[in-house]
Design a protein that fits this description.
alpha/beta, binds zinc ion, 7 helices, Collagenase (Catalytic Domain), 186 residues, 4 strands
Length: 186
């Protein structure tokens, strides 16, 4: 009897629709217009996350002829995709299918678009770049920084190879698809 009800339960949970990917963003130093740029980017990210194309692009990504990312923490493309879906940040490891982030807009003359540290959930974004970014650029940047929160890193200095690291490669895929999907109807 027990086995039967367990079986029914697991069948039921398979049939339930997957909960849509979500985001919970706290913003510091963002004016109303800045906030609306973030909201648009989040909306685009959600559309991309629900597309088959995003999954396909992650699973089929290749680095040096192999299906893998650089700086992947030993994770296969499938695992990288799974980690993204789960949304368990290192500092908030609840697998809630959600991007949990705290953003601060800051003024800096540096060439850094954004940065964060492993011991904080806050991500700093350089206004100099943010002001000229469109929705897809912001989606790329937010996703890049969020992937750091999931524990993926990359070399500090530019190289062509670095573009194949999880934050750069997946961020770029996100930005590219956000540009395609952002204006499509929900
Ligand atoms: Zn980075």
């Amino acid at each position: 009897m027990k086995l039967k009800s367990l079986l029914i339960l697991s069948l039921l949970s398979c049939m339930l629709p997957a909960r849509a990917f979500d985001a919970h963003i706290e913003m510091v130093n963002f004016g109303p217009q800045d906030q609306s740029k973030i909201f648009k980017a989040i909306k685009a990210i959600k559309k991309v996350m629900s597309s088959d194309e995003f999954k396909k692009r992650i699973l089929n990504f290749t680095f040096r002829g192999e299906k893998k990312f650089l700086d992947n923490k030993g994770h296969s493309n499938e695992v990288v995709f799974q980690k993204i879906l789960e949304g368990g940040e290192e500092l908030y490891p609840v697998k809630n299918g959600q991007m949990d982030m705290e953003l601060e807009l800051m003024e800096s003359e540096s060439k850094t678009v954004g940065y964060t540290y492993p011991d904080t959930k806050r991500i700093w974004i350089n206004r100099k770049f943010f002001d000229s970014f469109d929705t897809a650029d912001i989606a790329n940047n937010l996703f890049h920084e969020w992937l750091h929160k999931l524990g993926y890193d990359h070399a500090p200095d530019y190289s062509v190879e670095r573009n194949s690291s999880v934050p750069y490669a997946v961020g770029s895929i996100m930005g590219e698809l956000a540009r395609v999907y952002e204006d499509q109807n929900d």
